[in-house]
Amino acid sequence: MKLIIDENLSRFLLSTIRIYFPESVHVADQNLLNVFDREIWDFAKEKGYCILTKDWDYKFLSMTYGCPPKVIHLN
């Protein structure tokens, strides 16, 4: 599984996640900071990533557009 970590989660989380999911990235590493959620959604869909986020907006994108990409929402 490849994860893309949303900007509302720390980049430092990536070092821990890469132990289990080595192809994971943070949005900052992909020049996707301060962009609309839909741009991250499209990037994840195109590249085969699951979105790891704390942002509820992705729930609405998922209900509107379906999957992929899958969204992992952390509380």
The oligomerization state is single chain
Helical content (DSSP H or I, runs of 4+)? 25-40%
Task: Specify the structural class.
Answer: alpha/beta
Low-confidence stretches: none
- The chain-level mean pLDDT equals 95
Distance between the termini: 21 Å
Largest sheet: 4 strands, parallel
Tell me the radius of gyration. Answer: 11 Å
Lateral strand order in the biggest sheet = 2-1-3-4
Principal-axis shape: globular
Task: Please count the helical segments.
Answer: 3
Tell me what the structure shows:
- By secondary structure, the chain is of the alpha/beta class.
- Helices cover 37% and strands 16% of the residues.
- It has three helices and four strands.
- The protein has helices at 13-20, 37-47, 57-65; strands spanning 3-5, 25-26, 50-53, 71-73.
- The chain has a four-stranded parallel beta sheet, sandwiched between helices.
- The chain is globular.
- The mean pLDDT is 95.
Brief descriptors of the model:
alpha/beta; 3 helices; globular
